[in-house]
Design goal:
Number of helices: 17
Distance between the termini: 84 Å
Radius of gyration: 32 Å
Helix content: 55-70%
Structural class: alpha+beta
Low-confidence stretches: none
Strand content: 5-15%
Largest sheet: 5 strands, mixed
Shape: extended
């Protein structure tokens, strides 16, 4: 999580330059530019000065690219070892310019920011520590450097600020209502997790992120699930899925959580099976509308039987001992175990397919791709069949649903009729015309309802008798 980082190279020299410029700004006597910082529930106004870009460092702890750091495990390890090296700073600059969902692609929002800076200049100052580490404005610094600018306007934090203070200030600036560029979804989840690790309550965190407490708990469940899946995806060669691989799945993961919570109280095993199946479909990049077909009806209709099975393993135990207690609880059902085994195989294949590690051989890559393609084809077939079934159910239920709506309207009409007569405001002529239309509609309904039914039910029989009586008049 968060750690106290060492000072960057030439920190003392740059700190002296910063102190000198701050003193000059205070002594200038003119109107001083300041930037407001939220810290510990208070607001502080810090001096804004102009600093050379070549002396500023990107913040390795910035929340903006926290998840994206895992894009390249080797460079992330080097970043952890020495965050101030040229290689580590270049990696941070690369990520600041990259798309959050796919770091291999340049971010269009970055180009928009760069073009704005080129046309209008820097409107808002960044924020730095006394050692020249950017707290706010990392992306702007990357854009200014790309434009060939030599300096950047920044506010300077007090010398007493720790790294915990730095992270808190960055988060507070991002969560202001006037922020211009949101953190990516996974980075917001990581920021919430960090705040919880600091001992803050769910109510406090939810208030800062401007969400409801139940949404906060939902987000924590999603991040916990992602971390579990990434660990389950780890192969013998050390390849594993990364946090960044789940960017773009926000809505599908939230819908999964809502379904899981609803089913868990009724049937825990069914909830676990659907969780595994939906997660596999999300990983295979199926759309939100496709994933929605994986529901209770999906299992009832047996579409899950069309999906590939896991590669086996030891037989599942009937019960599991609780460590430290003389108790045993039932183990997961065979259906849950099969769903997990299938998903584990897909997770491990995805880890290899999405990895750029040179150590992965062509044979391993081809084998993983084969597993991926087989799973994708099976899910596509099962989801398509479930979609057809859902459309058929909808057609079957459409006529009864419309009749139920008509009944509700008639019931409301009875109430409106009583009120209109009480107030002596009923338009009897229009009411009579509406009843004539109702009779015509009922005659048409009876004509269609009686077709092909040798033994009609009670409702249809009543309708046919009513129409027959009407016709005999």
């Amino acid at each position: 999580m968060m750690r106290e980082l060492p000072a960057p190279p030439r920190a003392a020299e740059f700190s002296e330059l910063i102190s000198k410029k701050v003193d000059e700004a205070r002594a200038s006597g003119g109107t001083r530019e300041t930037v407001t910082v939220d810290w510990n529930g208070q607001q502080a106004h810090v001096e804004v000065i102009d600093l050379p870009l070549n002396g500023l460092y990107y913040n390795p702890s910035t929340h903006r690219i926290r998840a994206q750091r895992s894009h390249d495990p080797e460079k992330e390890a080097a970043l952890e070892k020495d965050p101030w090296s040229a290689e580590s700073q270049d990696y941070l600059q690369f990520l600041l310019k990259a798309s959050p969902a796919n770091p291999n692609v340049r971010d269009k929002d970055f180009d928009t920011l760069r073009d704005s800076l080129q046309e209008f200049g820097q409107n808002d100052p960044g924020l730095v520590t006394r050692h020249g580490v950017l707290v706010n404005g990392n992306t702007r610094a990357a854009a200014l450097r790309e434009l060939g600018q030599q300096s950047m306007r920044v506010g300077v934090l007090p010398e007493s600020f720790t790294w915990a203070d730095v992270n808190a200030v960055e988060l507070a600036l991002q969560l202001r209502k006037d922020h211009r560029r949101d953190y990516s979804y996974i980075n917001r989840l990581l920021a919430m997790e960090e705040q919880a690790a600091l001992g803050r309550t769910p109510e406090q965190i939810a208030r800062d992120f401007r969400i409801q407490v139940r949404t906060y708990h939902q987000e924590r469940w999603i991040l916990s699930t992602i971390r579990e899946l990434n660990e389950r995806s780890r192969t013998g060669g050390g390849n594993a899925l990364r946090l960044v691989d789940w960017e773009g799945a926000q809505e599908r993961l939230k819908e999964l959580h809502r379904l899981y919570v609803k089913l868990e109280t009724v049937d825990r095993d069914q909830a676990e099976v659907l969780k595994e199946l939906r997660l596999a479909a999300i990983l295979l990049n199926f759309s939100k509308t496709d994933v929605r077909h994986i529901d209770e009806d999906f299992l009832k209709a047996g579409f899950d039987e069309q999906l590939p099975k896991g590669s086996g393993g030891a037989a599942q135990p009937q019960s599991v001992s609780v460590p430290g207690l003389d108790l045993e609880v039932p183990a997961a059902s065979s259906a849950v175990a099969e769903a997990r085994a299938m998903n584990d195989e897909i997770l491990r294949a995805a880890a290899v397919v999405r990895s750029d590690a040179p150590a992965i051989g062509d044979e391993q890559k081809a084998s993983a791709q084969e597993v991926w393609d087989r799973a994708e084809k099976a899910f596509d077939k099962a989801i398509e069949a479930a979609g057809r079934s859902a459309r058929l159910r909808k057609r079957k239920q459409l006529a009864p649903a419309r009749l139920a709506d008509a009944c509700a309207s008639i019931d409301q009409c009875v109430s409106d009729l009583v009120q209109a007569r009480t107030a002596r405001s009923l338009d009897e002529e229009q009411f009579d015309e509406a009843l004539v239309k109702l009779r015509t509609s009922l005659l048409k309904l009876a004509q269609q309802a009686g077709r092909g039914l040798p033994q009609p039910g009670e409702g249809v029989s009543w309708l046919l008798e009513a129409v027959s009586a009407e016709g005999s008049r």
